[in-house]
Amino acid sequence: MTDPVLSVRDLRVRFRSGGRETQVVHGVDFDIRGGETLALVGESGSGKSVTSFALMRLLPEAPRCRISGSVRIGGVELLELSERRMAAIRGPRIAMIFQEPLTSLNPVHRVGDQIAEAIRFHRRMSRSAIRARVIELLSMVGIPDPARRMHAYPGEMSGGMRQRVVIAMALALEPDLLIADEPTTALDVTVQAQILELLKDIQRRTNMAMLFITHDFGVVAEIADRVMVMYAGRIVEGGELAEVLSSPRMPYTRGLLGSVPRFEDAGLRSGPLGTIEGFVPSPDALPQGCAFHPRCPHARPGLCDVDLPDLTAVDGTGHRVRCLRASEPLATENTEVPA
Amino acid sequence: MIRFLLHRTLQGIVLILIVSMIGFAVINLAPGGPLSQYALTPGISQADLERIAHQMGLDRPLPIQYLDWLSKLIVGDWGSSYRDQSPVLSVIWRHMWATLLLMGCATVISVVLGTLIGVLGALRRYSLFDYVATVGAMIALSIPTFWFGLIAIFFFSLELGWLPAGNMYTVGDQSLGDYAIHLIMPSAVLALVNVAIWSRYMRASTLDVMDQDYVRTARAKGLPRWRIISAHIVRNALIPMITLAGLQLPTIIGGALVTETVFTWPGLGRLFIDSLGYNDYPVIMGLLMFSAILTVVGNFLADVGVALADPRIRLG
Ligand SMILES: Nc1ncnc2c1ncn2[C@@H]1O[C@H](COP(=O)(O)OP(=O)(O)OP(=O)(O)O)[C@@H](O)[C@H]1O
Ligand SMILES: [Mg+2]
């Protein structure tokens, strides 16, 4: 097996404001290999974006925010790099597509210039070569008439078109790792499908690794090789796509799967139907024990509200779960895969 | 865009007309009125006053007087000063360039320094520099300009003897260096408050832009820090400042008033004070109209500037 492109160990993120410290990410570990897509799933506020910003070191600086642990890309420890050397990593090694297509582009610069800028500061290329590359990228992401559209301002484009520009920008230097933070949430379903297809296609050609953040299991089923479920800043379940979708062990994962109506279309069986009651706890008021226990239908008093479970392997496939009752019959009986 | 500018021009004309009516009414209805200077002449009789009033057309109904005055205004006949009978426009013109020189210097200082301090303060928020700049701005804004001017004169002119205490030039010298040395103190005093104002606005605007998603995008592209600051932060943070600069244009008269008085600078502010003292109504009205026109022109230029700098406005 090849070495992973990205290797994250015990990643922790703490924010500080007004003298109070809040930990938002509590020790996250994962690897992604070239050509592989890892989906990071979880409800709003579970810490997906913060985790991905931490990988690129895009969070506020030291006193306001502290990141610890290890983030290695191609053997280089990112958390120890100077800001200057980190800037050289951003773009050619890791690139990112952001959650908000409408505000991610600078409204006062032409979109073509904003893409060119992503190339210009990393590669010695002539103006005309950069221009040709910009046109190539724009047509690759499906923008019609790119030689003309490159002169448009973001305000003259629809949300879908702007998201394509952001994608073109992220792909400009053919990064080793692409982080896509809910790249399609703001878009309508047809555009969404086109963009997923586009990302898969590019991945096939460049062997790019991808961290795909979403809370839509339908999208996960279409794009991911492996899945990681996050809750309150911790990974609560992870494993191969088919494994996690067909036999989710963590009640939270099952709850998430149950709240995806489109899931049946993906040809995979969902867990018991139903939405999860209650809300993601605030990072500065996490419950004792398993963070999910107040909302969990299977929580057992005296057990789940006392100890924080570890992320433990449940079988030989790399399927791991953070649940004290994962191996008990009650917790698994509902999700037996039909013969 | 063209329609928008036409619209603004029309609005501007209406504004100028309204200002002219109010100004005309206030001055003509004020106790004393345009005749008050003659009334003080010793030995003048009521009959004399009435004759003068008739000569000047002051016995006609006010709206007629207004229309008469306005139509002359439009063709460039702004009346003549009661003081020396020279045409109002040329009186304003004569004083304007002194003010322009002073304001120009002060504005360049305030924009450059204010932008620099504001941007640095925002980039290093809550640092010692930011703290000193904040307190400094508060102090600068709370010191009355005349007090600061007098203190400056006391130290640099009377005690140290480095700089002239007032006036625009030394009679008989009038070299470039002579103008420059006379400019230093008044423009520094005038700039002090403007640096404070400009740096506060610039700091707020920069902080606002720094939080925008597109700045994060720029960082994610791996751009060098200087490029992020210049092309994505300062570039965008300056847009609201254009409007502020446009609003500053009419303060050319009022803004320099105190400074010009303290440093006996022969500009529009001084002209205004002197004209008030002489009840020189044509000049006062002229300055009022000039100020209204500058307001409109300033706003118009700001609109054009913002439109040029911000495609959202230009194309929206
Ligand atoms: N700069 C910050 N300072 C303090 N807390 C923050 C900051 N940014 C995010 N948080 C907190 O971190 C938690 C996780 O936020 P995050 O944006 O990572 O959620 P998410 O999983 O991406 O959700 P969504 O699906 O809505 O995008 C939230 O509780 C949020 O309030
Ligand atoms: Mg998010």
Automatic annotation (TrEMBL), chain A:
UniProt-annotated location(s): Cell inner membrane
Membrane protein topology class: Peripheral membrane protein
Coiled-coil features, chain-numbered ranges: none
Keywords: ATP-binding, Cell membrane, Membrane, Nucleotide-binding, Transport
Limits of the ABC transporter domain: 8-257
Entry superkingdom: Bacteria
NCBIfam families the UniProt entry points to: oligo_HPY (TIGR01727)
Protein name: ABC transporter ATP-binding protein
Organism: Pseudodonghicola flavimaris
TrEMBL record, chain B:
One Pfam family in the UniProt entry: BPD_transp_1
Source organism of the structure: Pseudodonghicola flavimaris
PROSITE patterns, per database record: ABC_TM1
Protein location: Cell membrane
Lineage of the species this protein comes from: Bacteria, Pseudomonadati, Pseudomonadota, Alphaproteobacteria, Rhodobacterales
Entry's transmembrane regions: 12-30, 96-123, 135-156, 176-197, 237-263, 283-309
Domain ABC transmembrane type-1: 96-302
Primary residence: membrane
Protein name as it appears in the record: ABC transporter permease
Keywords, in A-Z order: Cell membrane, Membrane, Transmembrane, Transmembrane helix, Transport
Membrane-protein topology: Multi-pass membrane protein
Family in the record: Belongs to the binding-protein-dependent transport system permease family.
Superkingdom field: Bacteria
